Amino acid sequence: MGMVPNFLGVLAQSPDALKAFLGLHEIAAGGALDPQTRERIALVIAEENACEYCVAAHTAIGRKAGLTTSEIESNRAGSSQDARAAAAVEFARNLNEHKGDLTQAEFEAVRAAGYSDAEIVEIITHVGMNILTNLIGKAVQVEIDFPKIELLKAA
Predict the structure, then answer these.
(1) Long-range CB contacts (< 8 A, 24+ apart) of 19-23?
(2) Domain 36-155 CATH superfamily
(3) How far is CA 95 from CA 5, 31, 72, 74, 100, in A?
(4) How many CA atoms does the CB half-sphere of 36 hold within 13 Å?
(5) Which one in 6, 32, 102, 134 has a CA-CA gap of 20 to 30 Å to 12?
């Protein structure tokens, strides 16, 4: 990215925490989900959890991954302009909102959109990673070092 984000500087306070995060991030990035879908998930989770740092960071990263401004806005609102991606974003939002307690219908909706069981596990993994980053971003009030983006709703 041409910079070391402040978020990683905070994690570096504990080299083991930084290694754990970077290791999981690297492994998850090698999965079946494309970079755009991973960013869509990060955006909806950051918005839902009112993490200003993460919304700003993933807006910038999402643009680099090829997401348009209107797609980013859709993702933050819990959807996507792409039907298949919309199912992943909604599934991610439901996971976060219900803390993993999902209905069979919610699983069937993401499967009906063409996601395999492996991809569903990856969506769950990305939701978990993003909840972690949201917790850190909010708890230590990481200074925003990306263009600031206002949350859609008050925290």
Answers:
(1) 21/129, 21/132, 21/133
(2) AhpD-like (1.20.1290.10)
(3) 27, 19, 19, 18, 5
(4) 13
(5) 32
Lookup: tokens for 13: 């306070």
Q: For the CA atoms of 115, 121, 127, 129, what is the dihedral angle to 10 degrees?
A: -140
Residue in the block written with tokens 């991030």: 25
Torsion from C-alpha of 5, 55, 72, 146, nearest 10 degrees: -40
